[in-house]
Amino acid sequence: MSLAAVSGGVTHRRVLAIALPMTLAHLTTPMLGVVDAAVVGRLGSASLLGGVALAAIIFDMLFWVFGFLRMGTVGLAAQAVGRRDAVEERAVLARGLLVAGALGLLIVLLRTPIESAALSLAGASEEVNAAVRDYYAIRIFAAPFTLANYVVLGWLVGLGRTGRALVLQLGINVLNMVLSAALVLGAGWGVAGSAAGTLVAEIVGAAAGLVLCAVLLGGRLGVAKTVLLDKARLIQTVMLNRDIMIRTAALMFAFSFFAAQGARAGDVTLAANAILQNMVMVAAYFLDGFATAAEQICGSAVGARRRADFSAGVRLSIVWGFAFAVLAGAVYLITGPAIVDAMSTSPEVRAEARIYLLYAALLPVAGVTAYAFDGVYIGALWSRDMRNLMLASLGVYLGVFLALRPLGNHGLWLAMLAFLLARGGFQALRLPALERRTFG
């Protein structure tokens, strides 16, 4: 019997039933960066704030390269739901956890060269690098647990269990924020306290996630070896994960390139950009909730061969995404200065952030179609096309940056706007051909 909790038909209510819980769950993730920035920002040092921001971006880049563990799991589980294949629903979770554990241990073993490469690419000041090293030395050991949490979250979403996914993600992130604040300000651990809070929260979250999965599966997480190692499924999983990994690496390169250019402009610009990026990420996670709805709805529609449901999922995820993006942009235009002041006590950082505040308001609107179509492509398992279109968009991003480089930080922000618009535009143009290929 299938474990899926999915109602029939695609309506506004169904989209919101998936998107809103996941929006709340996703929203707490960038809030970790906001809390870290606010807590460390209270120490009054631009170098410490810039160091924590840069370290967080390094881990985002490192872990999000393995975002296929969540995204691929959603698509595979959702399509199994559409086919009503209960055995494969279980196998998707088991394969994902196996891969997550292996990759997490590999990251830990390679922690020294990863740190050296990241700091070399960032090109920040020595003061910022010192803060990064303190943070990195602790948080790197969270890798196996973080990747396992990706798999569990993706599996729950793919099965339509977004309420349970929300509770699990909220628990991890709230615990992280509480521990970080307590260890940095209460215990006086500084940057190390922020990293330690994240490590403990990821360990607790992984344990809780495994217990939750075991309960849903009647106490058994394992599957038959023949099912787990099914050749066709393994090839599909490897190819899917490869394409999503390349796509995610390109995406994270774009964000890390953004951070590196800010670092080269000085500690104040780096800190200001970090504050604004955190604001943008808060809005982006609203959009990611609707992308998640598209992943589940479009994936199950492909599995069940329901073209009408697929089209409705695409349309409604974009409509609701635009509504939330416009709202977020308006909020930032009105309350942005107050948000900046709350996140830093440095007058220089506050003044610098205000100069570029408009971009933080525009980016969510520019990114609506990019996020929505990411969800559609992931659910439909169109990973090769998503990979290729992301690489093309990255070329647009770098080209615009080079053309606008004389504009300094303004040119950097404009290049990011162009990147988001290109992602959504390219995917929209490709969609009709892929839909005909999939549904006939």
UniProtKB/TrEMBL annotation:
Localization in the cell: Membrane
TM segment ranges: 47-71, 92-110, 136-158, 170-191, 203-223, 244-263, 275-294, 314-335, 355-377, 389-405, 411-429
Pfam families per UniProt: MatE
Principal subcellular localization: membrane
Record's keyword terms, sorted: Membrane, Transmembrane, Transmembrane helix, Transport
Membrane topology, from the record: Multi-pass membrane protein
Family matches, as CDD domains: MATE_DinF_like
Superkingdom as given in the UniProt entry: Bacteria
Family designation: Belongs to the multi antimicrobial extrusion (MATE) (TC 2.A.66.1) family.
Protein name per the record: MATE family efflux transporter
